[in-house]
Amino acid sequence: xxxxxxxxxxxxxxxxxxxxxxxxxxxxxxxxxxxxxxxxxxxxxxxxxxxxxxxxxxxxxxxxxxxxxxxxxxxxxxxxxxxxxxxxxxxxxxxxxxxxxxxxxxxxxxxxxxxxxxxxxxxxxxxxxxxxxxxxxxxxxxxxxxxxxxxxxxxxxxxxxxxxxxxxxxxxxxxxxxxxxxxxxxxxxxxxxxxxxxxxxxxxxxxxxxxxxxxxxxxxxxxxxxxxxxxxxxxxxxxxxxxxxxxxxxxxxxxxxxxxxxxxxxxxxxxxxxxxxxxxxxxxxxxxxxxxxxxxxxxxxxxxxxxxxxxxxxxxxxxxxxxxxxxxxxxxxxxxxxxxxxxxxxxxxxxxxxxxxxxxxxxxx
Amino acid sequence: xxxxxxxxxxxxxxxxxxxxxxxxxxxxxxxxxxxxxxxxxxxxxxxxxxxxxxxxxxxxxxxxxxxxxxxxxxxxxxxxxxxxxxxxxxxxxxxxxxxxxxxxxxxxxxxxxxxxxxxxxxxxxxxxxxxxxxxxxxxxxxxxxxxxxxxxxxxxxxxxxxxxxxxxxxxxxxxxxxxxxxxxxxxxxxxxxxxxxxxxxxxxxxxxxxxxxxxxxxxxxxxxxxxxxxxxxxxxxxxxxxxxxxxxxxxxxxxxxxxxxxxxxxxxxxxxxxxxxxxxxxxxxxxxxxxxxxxxxxxxxxxxxxxxxxxxxxxxxxxxxxxxxxxxxxxxxxxxxxxxxxxxxxxxxxxxxxxxxxxxxxxxxxxxxxxxxxxxxxxxxxxxxxxxxxxxxxxxxxxxxxxxxxxxxxxxxxxxxxxxxxxxxxxxxxxxxxxxxxxxxxxxxxxxxxxxxxxxxxxxxxxxxxxxxxxx
Lengths: 365, 472
What we know:
The structure holds two protein chains of two kinds. Chain A contains 21 helices and no strands. Helix content of chain A is about 80%, strand content about 0%. The termini of chain A are far apart. Among the domains of chain A are: about 80 residues, Tetratricopeptide repeat domain (Serine Threonine Protein Phosphatase 5, Tetratricopeptide repeat); about 120 residues, Tetratricopeptide repeat domain (Serine Threonine Protein Phosphatase 5, Tetratricopeptide repeat), CATH 1.25.40.10. In chain B, helix 12 links the parallel strand 3 and strand 4. Chain B is about 60% helix and about 10% strand. By secondary structure, chain B is α/β, with parallel strands linked by helices. Chain B contains 22 helices and seven strands.
């Protein structure tokens, strides 16, 4: 065992990082992500010595949001697994950690192992009579059910989770449960129920300092609004999400949002606005990150807007770019759609001979 | 581009002439040398995809920009070029229009093409300097002011790395403190200036876990992939990019990746296994205490101790840096006593020079004088660290003892204050003292300063200051 001076410094270090990650605030997360190696180091040393393990376990549980928002679970899982194994961590905390293990395994699409983790956590929660652990376990199982398309059972898990979070008055957790119930209702075509859940999830999230998740829930709500023909309402919802994402600098989520936003304007026949929205998309960001599917979608959508506006040259250029990107992905159906539009653009310019191979290729794909 | 600028100047001129002559021939492939110019690359990245017709368009745009500049300096020549090549008029018509002799117009044209090449060449130089500066800014700050005794090794490595069909893996091996990181840093900075690689990326490999049994080469490799992801795909989250994607990006575009501080044998084998398949022009330069077995596709350079002469140069230089002029100006025989006792390990020489400021040299050397096989080099470091420790102030001891809490990225002042309990002014004084004694290192950047410790120092502090060994 090291001397007391070093052990005190280990505890101080754990306390320092715990103070920064808990309570977690979305706006500061980019800076914390840079410090992730120091947080890992603190955890690693903290879990080494019996005298510091309990505090290290607390830090591990508090890192959940940082790891999830930063997609850092591959690097984090060995430390989380180790925290679950050390004897000094009390059962309640262990239950929370096992649920977290389940969520991260779900993100890795290891759904069976994730489900086992949540069931273990629920059993532990029942053993120590900790409702939060049980609620988190049901919530995890609801998410897994959604990904497995086992909607009926997932709804039942989600409702059990929501009941517990409501009883314990945990707004963040409750909003997450409502969001997954909204997704499940949307997936089964129950749009009014989905809208009801999303609006409750959004209302609850407004009370917390987590703008990125609020924006995510707003996007889900807008998607359902659009599906029920409420395009105007969807635009208002997305405008709010856009403002949030711009303020919190999240380029990836912003691209996703603008693709949806532009598509709604397009569906409403507001082609100039749709063009403006698609042009606002940061294609440089997509190019730097080799995100070809999204690049192809941007150019394809712009091409379609130009076609509607009668700008055939511009349409052809955009659709050619979209086709070039689709060819580098495995999205054959999307490529076929784009080639069909491209052929139309060429045929409209009287270049039927050039259009024919594109029509033919569109049919092959 | 591997060539130095003076050699390419003439090639640029010829390529400009060819491009102008083929201005209206759309089936003519773009001149490769012009397509690689940074000014053209800049226009291409604004335009988006790198298809041949876009390359051609970007080259034309770059030439038109240069022609615009030429019009201000040499309007007659510029007019000839524009009328002849771009507007497609015959020279004899241009001569009549300008009321000049045909020979004169010919001379104007060839002078104008030379000037266009000069304009483009100068612009390229500026862009290259900027690109190199940007690339260098991404490297961690160097831990040395000048490099002594490794110029030949640096030149060998640079030449090998620049060769197109040479190995993909380069190992720089040697004992702790021997200067592997400094040499790799120097090579990286020099190679940036050659623009042989599109980008140079520095990755410091995370230290081994405190308990060796928890070490997992796979985890180390995941860390490398995560760090590469954040550099290659800045907007993507580490979990969303797998090794295959990183690998494809490295195969597509030439990168030099420096993996600094590979520690264990297991890590080395895994690195071999994963990186050996690299097919493109990207290369890995790896610093390691392990010397790998010779094998195809791997270039290994072992870094030995400095020669006695270079050791003395290093002592003088370091003594000057810490304002220890008595040592800096000491006669060669006296300094030779240090190198005879300590050997040519640069880190050990720096530590001893610092110690000699406060302890009699004879006393330091009496105990440091050991045979320099690997085990005894450890003993020598133990002795040097132990003496340095005795001389530290209480605050500096406090700080050094808690530094193992800090990851390789280094700690900022807030974290260091939290773990030492020192107020800011005392902390800064302790940092200053430890930097002076070469016991902590600068990390981060000038805008975001961080501090870390050498792995040799960390291992010693954990064992001998914090009384912790794995058996505990």
